[in-house]
Amino acid sequence: MSIARVLGWLATLALAAGLVMGFGVAPREATQGNVQRIMYLHVPTILVAYLAFAVVLVASIVYLARRADAADRIAHASAEVGVLFTGICIVSGSIWGKPTWGTWWTWDARLTSVSIFFVVYLGYLLLRGAVDDPERAARYAAVIGILGALNMPLVHFSVYWWRTLHQPPSMLKPGAAAMPPSILAALLVNLVAFALLYAYFVVKRSRVLAREAEALG
Amino acid sequence: MTADHWGYVLAAYGIAALALGAYWRRLVRLDRRLPGRRPR
Q1: Average pLDDT of A19-43?
Q2: Rounded distance, CA A44 to CA A23, Å?
Q3: Which of B3, B19, B38 sits opposite A84 (nearest CB)?
Q4: Which of A30, A99, A215 sits opposite B8 (nearest CB)?
Q5: Do A96 and B12 lie within an 8 Å CB cutoff?
Q6: Neighbouring residues of B16: CB distance < 8 A, sequence distance ≥ 6
Q7: Which ipTM value was assigned to this complex?
Q8: What is the DSSP letter of A25?
Q9: Is A2–B39 a contact, with Cβ atoms under 8 angstroms apart?
Q10: What's the farthest any 2 CA atoms get from each other in chain B?
């Protein structure tokens, strides 16, 4: 069995476990009610998007240093999956915002910085499609992949640096997680599930890109 | 007691499932369209 297939099955099982944890095990949140369960989708997708763009950063540096095509393919695949996950995070956050904040969208620091983040990597993908020469496309994309990552701390810490409507981070923050163990467990299971799904998509997309390059000669 | 807003929960998870499913289908389609041996 190929590694992609193994990752695919592991991701499917983990996502099923995540749904059980998020809807069956984690309790109804006292203040927000059941709408808070969107968190088990919203938080893991942005954390895995951070991972995806960190991989883009490292792979882009490796590509520029060694001109390794494999590194470029990993960066390309990771950026694509990162954009998908960031998009899901933005949409799920907007849906969560309507019943809890009373609005679908507000231009506060977190929402604005994550939108810029999304647009930068969307630009990365568009640029790859717009430049005909694959070597030049890879080089330009690598530069954007490195510069785009500079926005990552801004997105994550925006809730501390500015006054925002968005709540502080649930994870990746100073100190221990301030939530009941069952909620934290549901969040962690979903985080692992989305990380496995990310790995599956990246492996599969990288292979398709390698075969496309082979076919083009 | 706070309203549960299940419709919003369903919409968030439904849209995510559609997006992830569509991306997976695209990868499968791209893979099948390409000539040559698929890596195992």
Answers
A1: 95
A2: 15
A3: B19
A4: A99
A5: yes
A6: A41, A45, A88, A91, A92
A7: 0.90
A8: I
A9: yes
A10: 60
Q: b/e for A167-203, b at 16 or more Cβ within 10 A?
A: eebbeeeeeeeebeeebbebbebbbbbbbbbbbbbbb
Q: pTM of the full predicted structure?
A: 0.92
Q: In the structure encoding, which two tokens stand for residue A53, read together?
A: 């763009």
Could you report the per-residue pLDDT of A121-141, keeping only the tens digit for each?
A: 999 999 999 999 999 999 999
User: b/e per residue, A43-74, with b = 16+ CB within 10 A?
Assistant: bbbbbbbbbbbebbbbbbbbbbeeeeeebbbb
Contacts of A149 (CB under 8 A, 6+ apart): A53, A54, A56, A57
- Are the beta carbons of A92 and B15 separated by less than 8 Å? yes
Q: Which residues contact A91 (CB under 8 A, 6 or more apart)?
A: B12, B15, B16, B19
Measured in angstroms, the CA of A36 and the nearest CA of chain B are apart by 8
Measured CA distances, B31 to A9, A114, A215 (Å): 18, 31, 12
Residues 6+ away with beta carbon under 8 Å from A86: A45, A46, A49, A114, A117, A118, A121
As beta bridge partners, residue A33 has A29
Instruction: Catalogue all structural domains in chain A, each as residue range(s) with its CATH number.
Output: 3-216 (1.20.120)
Residues A209/A9, Cβ–Cβ less than 8 Å: no
CB A43 within 8 A of CB A187: yes
Instruction: Name beta bridge partners: A29.
Output: A33
> Which of B27, B28, B32 is the best substitution to test chain A (most A C-beta atoms within 10 A)?
B27
Tokens coding A74: 């990993």
